[in-house]
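Lab notebook, design round three. We kept the backbone fixed and only want residue identities now. Task for the bench partner: fill in a sequence for the structure below.
Input structure tokens:
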């Protein structure tokens, strides 16, 4: 029965689907089980073809559910403190360099630094070519440390421009003198 009105056709199809929804879903499930490779291939092709559109939809959905998602995460962390602690401990053990840098940034923030940059110790060591910024002698592995040219306690910032490589002994001897 042809429909001149597309809205009437949509309403008819929707009512027909609702009447046989379970049968349709079962048929789709059987087809998907029998043709896993073809279904997977078509889904992959669709995702590749519509990557930008799908990414935009994901961003909208992500932004629209931010408060709900944050509330769910807080609730999970409150209900599973031991799992959370295990996860944090595992991450810290597998990323010691990042954990160390986080601690340095946090300490600088607590001491009043306004500008705080992310950088690794290795990045500073290679920039300074493993030469101590205080005594100008080569630094061996194991005796290295990061020295703030203007100490954070005296208003210095935790930035690449204000840090340098130093022997641990030289840095300790210098203390917080600028």
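Proposed sequence:
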């Amino acid at each position: 029965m042809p429909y001149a009105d597309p809205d009437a056709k949509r309403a008819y199809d929707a009512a027909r689907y609702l009447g046989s929804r379970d049968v349709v879903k079962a048929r789709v499930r059987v087809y998907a089980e029998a043709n896993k490779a073809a279904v997977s291939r078509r889904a992959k092709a669709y995702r590749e073809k519509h990557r930008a559109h799908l990414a935009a939809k994901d961003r909208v959905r992500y932004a629209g559910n931010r408060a709900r998602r944050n509330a769910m995460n807080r609730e999970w962390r409150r209900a599973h403190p031991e799992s959370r602690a295990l996860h944090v401990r595992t991450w810290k053990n597998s990323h010691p360099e990042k954990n160390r840098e986080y601690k340095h940034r946090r300490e600088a923030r607590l001491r009043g630094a306004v500008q705080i940059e992310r950088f690794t110790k290795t990045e500073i060591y290679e920039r300074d070519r493993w030469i101590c910024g205080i005594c100008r002698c080569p630094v061996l592995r194991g005796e290295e440390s990061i020295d703030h040219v203007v100490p954070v306690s005296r208003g210095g910032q935790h930035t690449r421009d204000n840090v340098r490589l130093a022997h641990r002994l030289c840095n300790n001897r210098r203390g917080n003198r600028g």
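Keep this in mind before ordering anything: The mean pLDDT is 92.
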